[in-house]
Amino acid sequence: MTNTNHHIEDSLERLSEVTSLRADEKAAGRDTVLAFMEKNPLPVRSPYAWLMAPGARYATALAVLVMVGGGGVVSADTAKPGDVLYGTKIRITEPARAALTFDPEEKTAFAIERTDRRLKEFAAYASSEEANPETTALIASSLSESIAEVSGDVRDYTETGSADSALKANADLQSVLEAHSVVLDTLGEQKPETKDDLTAIAASVDAGIATTENIEQEIVDALAPALTDDTSVAEQATETQVSISALLTELETQSAAISTDDRETITAELSEINVIIAEAWEAREAGDRKGALLLYTEADQRLSKLQTLVEADRDLGIGVAPEDEEASVE
Amino acid sequence: MGRISEKAFIRAYDELADEIFRFCVFRIKDRERAKDLMQDTFMRTWAYIAGGNEIENLKAFLYKTARNLSVNEAVRSKTLSLEELSVSGFEPEDTESEGPERLAEASLLMRYLADLSPEDQELLTLRYTNGLAVKEVAEILGLMPNTVSVRIHRAIQELKDKMQPNTP
Prior knowledge:
The structure holds 2 protein chains of 2 kinds.
Chain A (H helix, E strand, L loop, with lengths): L1 H17 L4 H17 L14 H15 L2 H6 L9 H14 L4 H25 L4 H27 L3 H28 L4 H32 L4 H23 L6 H26 L3 H28 L8 H4 L2
Helix pairs in contact in A: 3-5, 6-7, 6-8, 7-8, 7-9, 8-9, 8-12, 10-12, 11-12
Chain B lengths: L5 H23 L2 H20 L7 H19 L5 H6 L12 H15 L3 H12 L4 H8 L3 H19 L5
């Protein structure tokens, strides 16, 4: 038996000799990668980087407020990619706002919201005009920062006995990233000329998804001791209810604009979510807090993902499940 | 590893392009798409680095990126039957050094391999065809090394059963 196993192992090893790139294919790939690297060089450290150091951000924001009398910063808040004040919004007003938020969970929620906002801004920008590499780099960098902030918070929560908070933050971030991953893929198919810019953003999104998946099991393992009462389950059940209401309102508002295919996809996804909610309710009734919390979180995560896709369809007209229904919505 | 220079990155391409390509071929069973995914893997990873991010283990990061891209691609594409595999380019490459018998053996093995679950195919490709250590496979898949060893053993057994259905 062992000999046969060795024979199979040897044969598998030898497959590498017959499934390789030809020299011309490898060289062509190398040229493509090199061209991409030239177009996307490594960042040069700004001489003003010290202004962005964590401790200096709040002071910088105050200084800017004084300099421009507030008006500039207020308008920066609504700036879109390509606007003159967009950089100010990303580098100064948002970090200043985060610095003024003291509750840890609110801070995490703000970072998730920022991740979502950045990806929505980029999708709208890339679909309406030719993206500028500098703006794309600015968005990619802000995106990586906010994802890293949430991931750091999730790790902290897990290690300090607040696995329920970790579970929620991780699931919220994951649903945002997964939904936008679908949106980016669709945009890439519809606007191949934006591929390079999409690639830069998709890299951050993929890395973020991988991070959320890697820590998932650790959170689940740490969950039971954190659930000393029903509070977390009750809160998550309420949040799931809120997510359903928000989604139904959105669907009602744009009912006429949703295609038949998308309607079927949404209906199928909602019925699966209903099953999960029913299972969560049963688990809660049976006193299985961990099971109930995981199920409510999964339902809420899928609702949030669907909501993001429906909103993207509304704003960009890309469909909820443009290429493959199963791939787009779980 | 930290900040990665252009030179180090292109050296990584020279060393790992074949491995990453092979990993993608076995995952999505389409030679042409696998070439695109291999390039996308390197470009996305570079974009991540150029975005100011640091990477601890470049090889593992490349594999993880290739894995994410291949999973998305596999979900989007339809599942191919064994007969369709050769049409899509999931066949051994006819190199000068390989005789027809060796190619036929390789072709048969690839078909049996394609009959395993995607997870088992992935494990065997990483461990044997790409020659990664169990520890490296574990890091890429986010599993414990012991778990990887056990799963590899089971996958080999399953492959053996498929290849020799009448052997006790």
